[in-house]
Amino acid sequence: MRRLPVTALICLLVVTSAGCSGLLDDGNQPTESETTTPTPTTAATSATETTPATTAPAEQLAPGLTAEDVTDALALANAHRANVHNHTFVSQQRFTRANETERVYRQDNLHYANESRWQWNRSGEGMGIALDVTNGTFVQYADGTEVRYRLQSAEDVRYGVRKISARASAPPMPPEDVFLDSLYARNLVYTLFATEDVTVEHGDDVAAHVTGTASELTIGGETATSVEFTATVTDNGLVQSLDVSYEQGEDSIDRTLTFNRTSAVPVERPDWYAQAGNSSE
Question: Could you tell me the pTM of the whole model?
Answer without folding.
Answer: 0.78
